[in-house]
Every structure is written in C-alpha cells, then in structure tokens.
Write a structure and sequence with these properties.
The chain has 19 helices and 27 strands. By secondary structure, the chain is of the alpha/beta class. It folds into 3 domains: 253 residues, Glutamine Phosphoribosylpyrophosphate, subunit 1, domain 1 (4-Layer Sandwich), CATH 3.60.20.10; 184 residues, Rossmann fold (3-Layer(aba) Sandwich), CATH 3.40.50.10490; 142 residues, Rossmann fold. The strands form 5 sheets. It has an 8-stranded antiparallel β-sheet with strand order 3-2-4-1-10-9-11-15, with helices on one face. The chain has a 7-stranded antiparallel β-sheet with strand order 5-6-7-8-12-13-14. A 5-stranded parallel β-sheet has the order 19-18-20-21-22, sandwiched between helices. Strand 7 and strand 8 form a beta hairpin. The longest helix is centred in the C-terminal third of the chain and has 22 residues. Bound molecules: fructose -6-phosphate (F6R). Fructose -6-phosphate binds next to helix 9 and helix 16.
Length: 617
C-alpha cells in the first residue's frame, strides 16, 4: 500500500511528482505530499492530509507555485500508524530537515526505535512508524555517511518489509531508493534528462519504457540520466532493463464517470484477451504455453490448493470448483492469510495456484513463499507483469485484463476466472480426464463468453432501479450454492466495500443453521439462482426468506417465470452454458454495488479505508 514516486532530472520536479503520484494514487489516498530539494539546496515539503482530496489539494497548492527544484520525492498514503492528517503525511524529515523520506511498509519495531530516538533527544512530529526511518537516515548522514550508506544503515535497524526513497541536502542531485522484503516494489527507469522511480511501472511510462525492478535487499541511486544499483554490501549490480508492456491509456478514465464503470464495461475485452493464444476457436483446441509442468508432474498432482485474498480468493474458489469437476483433482481455495500461518501439508504432489491482480499482496506472497519452500509446484494467475509474485512462482499465467485502477476488482476477476477455467480444461485433458471432443465443446462455449458478458452489461438500468431500493437497507444477504457461492460472496464483498452496507455472502444451504434468525423486513436478500441443477433448492430458499417477511431480489436466467412469482425483484441474465453461469451472474452484482454506491454518494473508485494494493498484513 502507499504510492511512491521520485524524480531527479534537468527540469522542475514538481509537476512530474504530481503526475507520478496521480498514477500511483490507487495504492492509497489518505494523504499526499512531496519533498523537493530547492535551488538553495534546502529540502522543502508540502503535504496534505485531507483524505481523498489530498492529492488534488496538493496539486492545486504546488502546480504553478514558487516551489521548484530538480530533485524530489512524493508519496500517497494508506494510513497504518497515526490518523489521516497533515502531520502524519509523508514525506517525513529528520530533525534538522537534512533528510526527507517517503516510506511504504510497516516498521514492526518502531516503538522500541522511537523510544531510543526520543531518549537521544529527537523530537517526533508525527505519530507514524515511518518517521523513525527519517531520523535514522538523518543521524547516519550527519555522521558523515553517504545517503546510500545511511539508508542501508537505517534499514538494517528496522524489522518488517519496507520500500523507502530518500533525499538529502548533502547530495542534492540524488534520490536513493531501497527495498527490503516484499512490501511493494520499486521500479526505476531513466532517459537522457531524468531518472525516476516509483511503486508501479505505470508511473514511469511518461518517462521511459525501459525499467529495472528492485529485488528485495537492493538499493538504487538515481540522478539526471543515471541509475546505479547496489546490493546492501555496496557491490554494484548490473541488470538489463526490461521493456514495459503496459499502456498508459489504461490509466485514464476516458468518457466514463469512474474507473470502475470503465473496467466493468471492458470485461468482454478482458475475457478475449485472457483467451488469446490459448483457446483456438477454429480448431477447438486449447493450449496453455505458460504452464511449466512436465507431463509426469501433471499426472502426479493429487491436490490443487488455490490461494488469494478478497476478490482474488473468490476467483480461486471458482477455479477450485472447475478444476475439481473437470480434471477430477481434489481442489480447495484458501485465504492466503490463513494458509500462511496454519502449517499446511503441501509438497511436490500439491499444485499451488496463487491468484493475485497486483502480484504484491503481502499475505498471498507469504503463502506462495511457504508453498515454494514446501516443494510444491507453484503457479500464479496474475495481472501485473513483473511484480514480485512472478519471481516467486515457478510459472505465471497472465490474465491480461489490462491495468485496473478502480480499487474494487472487476475485470481482473473475470479475466482470472477465464484463465482458471482454461487451466482446468488444460489439466483435465493432460490427465486424460476429458476427451478432445469435450475440450472442443468447452472451447466452443468459451467463444460465446464475451457476448454473454456483454449482454449482462446491458442490465444497467434494471440493476440501477434495484440499487435504489437496496440502498435503503442497512443489512443485506447474498445467497448462492455450488459455483454461485463465490459469486454471492463477491456480491456481498463489493456491496460492503463500495456502498458501505453491511452484507453477508452465504451458502444458501447454511440458512437453516443459524442465519434464518436474521430474516425479516429489515434485511433484503439477493439470491444468485440461474437455471441449473440447484435451481429448485434455491427456489425453496427464496420462499423461506419470503415466508419470514424478507424482501428478495433474484438473479435468474432469462425466461425463468417462477422467479418472478416468488421474488420481489428479478434481474434476468442471459442464458448460457452452466459452466459459464458465474461469469454472467457476477456482472449484475458488480453493477449493483457500483450503482448503490452512487445512490449513497460514495466514491466507487476510492472506497474509504481501502487501497488497491495491500502490501502489508
Ligand atoms: C476487492 C478487491 C480486493 C482484492 C484483494 C487481493 O474488490 O479488489 O479484495 O481482490 O485485495 O488483491 P490482489 O488481487 O492484488 O492480490
């Protein structure tokens, strides 16, 4: 979490810092600030802690203002230690302002270090853990160490994963960046006039397409046109820059009101993209060239564990159900923050598949690391190319949805599900669990998937009226069974995170085991009940809710008249093969959360207390 951007070049850093922070703002938008080394060699900071308005307020203050300098660092914050306000905004400075730092991560031993620094006479100006780093670097600089050496020394004192950038009045032409552990990456690039570094490659695109990713335990110095990489012992490292494949256009809203509405609308394209070069609609064949497993390994797998967090976990649940049903391998999906700590039995016969949009989620990375050490073959289903997860995994299955900026995942969910379904078919065929004909049949179904999802997107006006009604409730229940359970969980998650309405996702069969006690006119229930083998059971659940005075909305298949007779509201999704139903039922739930958020005056692109990339536990 938190976004970092740094510039060292021939021009005024200020507009570049603001532009860079806009690109990484999705990582945290509680506060924003910059520190610039001005023409006198002094460090000057400007910060705003106005919640979601911080960056815009900062931009209004500094763009076209008198602050200028060729070197600077900037930060957008997702608060962990200390309230959202100006004093806790980064960058933080050392006691005599000789050093400024911007930090991403958590300093686990900060209280102990803070006490030690206070005892030595340092006065703290913020409640953050990060300020400790500013003072530790400042003390080292004052003792005569170079900025690079000072940052390394400071980092050696702290516990926890960290990414930090720093400037010093002693070396005013330079920014130093350091990465320890998996807390958010740092990516660096340069052109003839400037060098830049940031938490995400997307922020570097206006400057260069050639970038270097810092590995944990590496430190970098940048100045106009020069980038120097070192290990923590000061040995120079040479790493060939890689070309960024991403497109800056993705980071623009175009004519859409929000990134989220743009990304929902892009889902048919995201699906196409996830199938490109994999599903061959002309021949009915399916290949997954990225899978680096031998035939022997594929045959010897006796369990698949999918892991991820939030929406990515829901994609993993879908993946587990299709892998088990098609490839006949016992498969489970497990929350990474649980998996990493429960000492699970993994090994060479358990295929572990992590699902992560960002490739930076701390818990997912830790679970992956655990799997790697246990000797499990390890795959990652991922959007952001070059992120840490690609380096931990044995192989990467890119989902290729295109950069997702809205905090709530939508198109990356759909593209991850598309990728996982193809993985299921691939494994099934490789193990002989399904025939070539069945592969061709499924590939034929996949050919229609973008249009089924397009048709689901047309439900905007029906879903908007339902959103108006549901926005009046304080509690909502989302029910599903089988492949619709992850959809129900996702519907509830989206409603919580965007509309701030308490919502629970439940297996419909669980109702009688306690949840029914909540039913009544004060809680509305959304039921995912497309026409399939569990439909009759879902109808019974709907009747039970109705019998207790609850209001019910059903996501049903077009043509289903029974749904209309039993429920208060029906959203009809297009008819499609049962295997693909979760794709068409999840879309109206995404729109429902988006529209409900708008009715309630929430900002769907910047839900409170959240950030797109969760690089701390
Ligand atoms: C919810 C959402 C989050 C993420 C979760 C994992 O809309 O986006 O629940 O799915 O934080 O993030 P990644 O996929 O980057 O590992």
């Amino acid at each position: 979490m938190c976004g970092i951007f740094a510039y060292a070049g021939d021009e005024n850093a200020v507009p570049f810092l603001i532009e860079g922070l806009r690109a990484v703002e999705y990582r945290g938008y509680d506060s924003a600030g910059i520190a610039v080394v001005d023409e006198h060699g002094d460090i000057r900071t400007v910060k705003r802690g106005d919640h979601k308005a911080s960056l815009e307020n900062l931009a209004q203050t500094v763009i076209g203002g008198e602050l200028s300098g060729n070197v600077g660092i900037g930060h957008t914050r997702w608060a962990t230690h200390g309230e959202v306000n100006q004093k806790n905004s980064h960058p933080h400075t050392s006691h005599n302002s000789s050093v400024a730092i911007a930090h991403n991560g958590i300093i686990e031993n900060f209280l102990q270090l803070k006490d030690e620094l206070i005892e030595s006479g340092i006065v703290f100006l913020s409640d953050t853990d990060s300020e400790v780093l500013a003072h530790l670097v400042g003390i080292a600089v004052e003792s005569g160490a170079s900025l690079r050496e000072s940052v390394v020394r400071a980092a050696a004192r702290i516990k926890g994963n960290t990414a930090v950038v720093a400037v010093s009045v002693n070396e005013p032409e330079k920014v130093v960046g350091l990465r320890v552990g998996n807390a958010g990456g740092i990516v660096v690039g340069s052109n003839a006039h400037s060098s830049v570094m940031a938490s995400d490659t997307i922020a570097l695109l206006p400057h260069t397409r050639q970038v270097v990713y810092l590995e944990p335990g590496e430190v970098v110095e940048i100045e106009a046109g020069a980038v120097r990489l070192f290990d923590l012992d000061g040995n120079a490292i040479y790493r060939q820059p890689v070309e960024i494949g991403r497109n800056f256009e993705a980071a623009k809203k175009g004519n859409y009101a929000h990134f989220m509405s743009k990304e929902i609308a892009e889902q048919p394209d995201a699906i196409q993209s996830a199938m490109r070069g994999r599903a061959n609609f002309a021949t009915g064949a399916l290949s997954l060239p990225e899978v680096e497993l031998t035939q022997h390994q594929i045959k010897s797998i006796d369990r698949v564990v999918l892991t991820g967090m939030g929406t990515s976990l829901h994609a993993g649940m879908f993946g587990a159900s299709v892998i088990e049903s098609l490839a006949r391998i016992p498969s489970v999906a497990e929350n990474s923050s649980e998996l990493r700590y429960r000492d699970p039995v993994l090994g060479p016969k358990t295929l572990v598949v992590a699902v992560t949009q960002s490739g930076e989620t701390a818990d997912t990375l830790a679970a992956m690391e655990f799997a790697r050490q246990a000797g499990s073959p390890l795959a990652v289903v991922l959007e952001i190319d070059g992120s840490q997860a690609t380096r931990v995994a044995d192989f990467t299955l890119p989902v290729r949805a295109g950069q997702e900026i809205g905090v709530a995942s939508t198109k990356t969910l759909i593209a991850s599900m598309t990728t996982l379904l193809q993985l299921a078919v691939f494994l099934a065929r490789a193990r002989g669990a399904i025939s070539e004909n069945r592969v061709a049949e499924i590939v034929g179904m996949l050919a229609g998937l973008p249009s089924y999802v397009s048709a689901a997107l047309d439900l905007d006006s029906e879903v908007s009226s339902l959103a108006g009604r549901l926005s009046e409730f304080a509690d909502l229940l989302f029910l599903g069974r089988g492949a619709q359970l992850p959809v129900a969980l996702e519907g509830a998650l989206k409603m919580k995170e965007l509309a701030y309405i308490h919502a629970e996702g439940y297996p419909a069969g669980e109702m009688k085991h306690g949840v029914n006690a909540l039913l009544g006119p004060d809680m509305a229930t959304v039921v995912c009940a497309p026409t399939n083998n569990l439909y009759e059971k879902m109808l019974s659940n709907i009747s039970e809710v109705k019998a207790r005075g609850g209001e019910v909305a059903v996501i049903a298949t077009v043509g289903d008249e029974s749904a209309q007779r039993v429920a208060d509201h029906v959203i009809y999704v297009p008819e499609c093969p049962e295997l693909l139903q979760p794709f068409v039922t999840v879309v109206p739930l995404q729109i429902l959360a988006y529209r409900t958020a708008l009715v309630l005056g929430r900002d769907p692109d910047k839900p409170r207390n959240l950030a797109k990339t969760v690089t701390v536990e």
